[in-house]
Amino acid sequence: MSNPPASSSSSRVTFASLTYRNLGTVKKLNSVLFPIKYSDKFYQDIIAPEVEDFCQLIYYNDVPVGNICCRLENNKDLYLMTMGVLAPYRSKQLGSQALKRVIKAAASHSKPKIRRIYLHVQVSNTDAKRFYERHGFKEAGIKEDYYKKIMPRDAWILERIIDSEDKQDQEKPEL
User: Fold this and answer.
1) pLDDT tens-digit profile of 133-171?
2) pTM for the full predicted model
C-alpha cells in the first residue's frame, strides 16, 4: 500500500514512503549521490513495511531530489544506511528535515523501542560529520577499513541516543 507524499512545514518539500513503484527513482538518485553500487537485496530491504517510516524519498516542488534509508538492527538500533540530496538542492534544509522526521519516528517507535540511531561517515567527509553533529550525533569511534572500494577506507561511527524529547517536533515555533 502506498502512502501519498507527506507535506512538511514548507509547502515545497514533501516526503514519500518507498515502494516498488518509486524504487527506480531511488536507484537513479543513489547512482548519482553515492560512489558505490547497492545490491538488489539493499533495494528489497528498504521497501519492507517495518522500515516504512525510516526510508523516504525527498521531493522538492514535486521533483524527487534525495532520499534517506535506514534499517532496524538488534531490535534496538536504527542504522542510517544512506542519506543524500542532489547538489543543486542542498542548503535548503532538505536533509535536516528528512533526518528530523526519522529521529521523531524512531522516538515514537515502540515495537521494538529504538535506543539509538547510528551511521558511518567516511573520515574525509568533514562536512557530513559536522551536519550530523549539528543534529545531536556524537562520534562513537572509528571503524578502520570500513569502505572496501573507496579511499580513504576508514569511517567515523556517529550515534545519537534516542530519548523522550525526540518525540516532540524539534523545531520550536518562533514567538
Assistant:
1) 999 999 999 999 999 988 999 999 999 999 867 766 544
2) 0.86
Contacts of 96 (CB under 8 A, 6+ apart): 131, 135
Report the C-alpha gap between 56 and 26 in whole angstroms: 9
d(CA 73, CA 10): 32
Dist. CA 108–CA 102, nearest whole Å:
10
Active site residue 109: no
Say if residues 153 and 145 touch (Cβ distance below 8 Å): yes
Closest residue by Cα to residue 113 from 159, 154, 164, 149: 164
Of the residues 43, 120, 146, 147, only one is catalytic, namely 120
Catalytic site residue from 38, 43, 79, 89? 79
Provide the 10 A C-beta neighbour count for residue 19.
14
120 is a catalytic site residue: yes
